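We close this part of the discussion by returning to an individual protein. The amino acid sequence and the backbone structure tokens for this protein are reproduced below:
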Amino acid sequence: MSVVETVGQATIDGLAYLGELTILTGRSLRALIVGPFQGQRVRGQRAVHQAMAAGVGAVPILSLISFFIGVILALQAAYELRKLGAIALVARAVAITVTRELAPLITAIVVIGRSGSAFAAEIGSMKVNEEIDALETMALDPIEFLVAPKLIAMVLMLPCLTTWADFMGVLGGASFGVSVAGFTLGSYIQATLHSLVFRDIVTGLIKSVMFGMVITAVGCQEGLSTGLGAEQVGRSTTSAVVKSIFLVVAVDLVFTMLFYFTTSQ
């Protein structure tokens, strides 16, 4: 195949995959919103279980990573700002960078590694063991039974985790500011609050909701498309992680551009 044919085929395959993700997400949202009015159950217990696994289980590692990211940002910002005599702006640089960009992105990557891969492995194993077919035989919709609880859990937990990552990132920056840059804890927190506006926090939370939908859709889609054999489960899990990270970064770019152009006018 020529380069043009290769690029064209890859583009077609990518658009088809995005269409599959959109259909899966739409069916899941329909099961959550319209389903209860049509006599379908909302699997609340399964959603709570997924929320505990994806959300509460991720808090320790996310706290550590976010704290370190805050320290690293403060170090890098202080290195350049000291040359300009503006070391007092460290708190502003850390707060805006963490809340707008890094907290939702780091949270999404951590959740992809913990939960997105788990979704693909769980559903892929069920597909290989013909448990998906068994659900359909019992007149249970696999989307309503498996995907919808994961979607609602992720959409609810990602903003919560992002808020916690915001706090830990700012705390990491504060540890550097207090120990090295001459801040007191109170002055650092005050500088952080003065530098943030409501839009900064909302931007990160909106991104986190979209990231949760992407992670769930990709993980479940890869699981549902798993071929036969244990090896295929491993491939689906790997594919889910790689595709989720790529799509999360792409969605992050789209929303960052959207927020930039809507707020700069």
